[in-house]
Amino acid sequence: MELGAICPIADGTAFLRQGEPGTLVYLILQGLVKITARAENGEQVLLAVRVRGDLVGEMAVLGRGTRSADVTACGAVNVLAIHGNAFLGYLQRKPVAGFAVSGALSDRLQWANQRRLDFAGFGADVCLARILLSLAARHGYGTAQGRDIGVPLTRAELGGLIGIKEPTVRKAMRTLSDLGLILRAQRRVVIKDLPELARFAELIPLNR
C-alpha cells in the first residue's frame, strides 16, 4: 500500500472522466465499477466492468495521454490511488509487476475479441444469452433462484455490451424470461438454468 492512498468512492461517483489527463492509476480493493464512453452520437456506452484486484486508469498513464472512458462506482468502492509516476517507477523496478499488467491488458483484448466472435451472425436473443453467461462466469454468484450475473445493469447498458438498442434488449429479455431461463428485477438478472441458457445460446452446456 506504500505506492498510494486508500480512497473510498461513493456509489454513482465517476472518479475517472473521459478526456481528462491521465495522472492517477487506481487499484480496486473492494467493489465493482463500470467503464463507459460517449459515442459520436452522444450516447453513453458500457464497455466493461471491473472488480476487486483490477486496475483502472493505467492505459492513459502508460500512454501518457487522456482518459478514453469514464469509470463509475457501482455501490461502495474502495481503491488504492497511485500517482502515475509512482506507478511507472514501480513497473520499472519490478519487472514481474510489468508482466502482470501486460498479461491483464492481453486478457482484456482477448475478451473483447471473443465478444465480437460471440455476437457475429447471431440474433439479439442469442447475443444477450451469451453476454449474460459471460458476465455470470466472471462476476456471478449463486442464489436460491439461480445464478445472479453479479453486475447491476440497465437494459441500455446490456445493449451497449452487445451493440443493440434498448428496445431490442427489452424484447430479448422478455423472450428469455418467457422461456423460464432468467429472472429480472431492479437491474439484476438471475440465470435460472445455466445449461439450458447455454444451449439456447448455442454454446457447450455449462455444469451447475
From TrEMBL:
<keyword id="KW-0238">DNA-binding</keyword>
<dbReference type="GO" id="GO:0003700">
    <property type="term" value="F:DNA-binding transcription factor activity"/>
</dbReference>
<dbReference type="Pfam" id="PF00027">
    <property type="entry name" value="cNMP_binding"/>
</dbReference>
<dbReference type="InterPro" id="IPR018490">
    <property type="entry name" value="cNMP-bd_dom_sf"/>
</dbReference>
<keyword id="KW-0804">Transcription</keyword>
<dbReference type="InterPro" id="IPR000595">
    <property type="entry name" value="cNMP-bd_dom"/>
</dbReference>
<dbReference type="InterPro" id="IPR012318">
    <property type="entry name" value="HTH_CRP"/>
</dbReference>
<dbReference type="GO" id="GO:0005829">
    <property type="term" value="C:cytosol"/>
</dbReference>
<feature type="domain" description="Cyclic nucleotide-binding">
    <location>
        <begin position="1"/>
        <end position="91"/>
    </location>
</feature>
<feature type="domain" description="HTH crp-type">
    <location>
        <begin position="122"/>
        <end position="195"/>
    </location>
</feature>
<protein>
    <submittedName>
        <fullName>Crp/Fnr family transcriptional regulator</fullName>
    </submittedName>
</protein>
<dbReference type="GO" id="GO:0003677">
    <property type="term" value="F:DNA binding"/>
</dbReference>
<dbReference type="InterPro" id="IPR018488">
    <property type="entry name" value="cNMP-bd_CS"/>
</dbReference>
<dbReference type="Pfam" id="PF13545">
    <property type="entry name" value="HTH_Crp_2"/>
</dbReference>
<keyword id="KW-0805">Transcription regulation</keyword>
<dbReference type="InterPro" id="IPR036390">
    <property type="entry name" value="WH_DNA-bd_sf"/>
</dbReference>
<dbReference type="InterPro" id="IPR014710">
    <property type="entry name" value="RmlC-like_jellyroll"/>
</dbReference>
<dbReference type="InterPro" id="IPR050397">
    <property type="entry name" value="Env_Response_Regulators"/>
</dbReference>
